[in-house]
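Treating backbone geometry as a discrete language has practical consequences that deserve illustration. In the encoding step, the backbone of a single protein was reduced to a row of integers, each denoting a local shape. The amino acid sequence and the backbone structure tokens for this protein are reproduced below.
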Amino acid sequence: LDFSPAAVEVARTLALDLGLPVEIVESDCYAAADILGQGMFDLVYTGIGALCWLPDIDRWAKVVADLLVPGGRLFVREGHPVLWSLDYQVTDALVIAHPYFETDDPIIDDEDTTYVETETRLLNTVTHSWNHGLAEIITAVMRHGLRVTMLVEHLSVPWAALPEQMVSAGGSEWVLKDRPQRLPLSYTLQAIKA
């Protein structure tokens, strides 16, 4: 499920090329249960960098609960709210610059680059994002009938989020090169629908 027609087209092409019987649907995530059907899924997976684009974490948690069958599982691997609150322009220190907690107003960035390794500059440079505190996420999930079965905070993240301050930890994971135990960079959350 993706709201971007271009992303849906690429995903459909990849699925065809790989011979995978995957249905790819264009939709806003908040309409997912209406489009895909309620109580139809054993697993809802939310990957890194997804939740920051959503203004309302409680609304997302309701959609997850609506999508899952009883006993169905939510699996989230996401950038930690502390990481999302850092000022990425400061390259020699860890500086909190953005809200840790969800706010009505978005965090607005204007950058012509992306986290994807490319020399190409973006034409559409303004983005709006929202942070959600860890307790806000857990409370929203529980409020909508899911039981949290695991929460792990990780010292690593699968991209060089702060390139000047990070080193490879092997595989695709990156850690702070100076005292990595200072803060979590990502987390994994699992929950089961009652």
About this structure: The radius of gyration is 18 Å.
